[in-house]
Amino acid sequence: MKKTFFFIIFFVFLVVSLIVLNQTVLDVTPQSVRRWILTMGAVAPFVYVLLYSIRPFVLFPASVLSLTGGLAFGPVWGFVLTLIGATTGALLAFITARKIGARRIESRWGRKLSKLQNMLEKNGFLVIILLRLIPIFHFDLICYAAGMSKVKGIQFFFGTLIGIVPGTFAYTFLGASTTADTSTILYIAIILFIIITVLPVLYKKQIKRYLSVEDQK
């Protein structure tokens, strides 16, 4: 019990410290990350994909990296590279949970993890797509739950790849539009971003109901 308490305190302290450090010293924004990545020259795309791949393990916000992808590489390549990086990062978290981190992850997430495992084992591919489309559970939690369940790696991979397409496009296109010559493109990007991110939320109740039914079968 004491170990769990101290772990929670340490985790909260770490997160708060990172936030304060970012706001006072690092100033990590999509623009600053873009400038740093582009200093890498020809290897910049590889550095970006690598950063996104290790993101689940370093507490770096995915939204900042996705916006950076659009800013640094444009809407097309930004989308492609972000899709590759996000899927790779999710797959690494999945493999980590399956191979080495099961006990720690299970004690960390508790009941939510068990519920997710049950759903994933019954209809993994479809459930992963739905969970990627709507913010019912934390992105990384889905990776860990899938890794600890019996869902096949190929189902997880393609479910994640398909499910994150709308959100990835929304963020990268929005990031790319901030450097556009006309404000019209920015307005279009904002409207598309709102539609793509809000639409799944509107169907959140129906999808949660469907998942609950699947869980009870």
From TrEMBL:
Gene Ontology cellular-component annotations: plasma membrane
Locations listed in the record: Cell membrane
Superkingdom classification of source: Bacteria
Principal subcellular localization: membrane
Stretches that traverse the bilayer: 6-24, 36-54, 74-95, 125-147, 153-173, 185-203
Domain VTT: 60-176
UniProt keywords, alphabetically: Cell membrane, Membrane, Transmembrane, Transmembrane helix
Pfam families associated with the record: VTT_dom
Membrane topology reported for the UniProt record: Multi-pass membrane protein
Keyword Transmembrane helix among UniProt keywords: yes
Protein family according to the UniProt entry: Belongs to the TVP38/TMEM64 family.
Name of the featured protein: TVP38/TMEM64 family membrane protein
Source organism per UniProt: Fictibacillus phosphorivorans
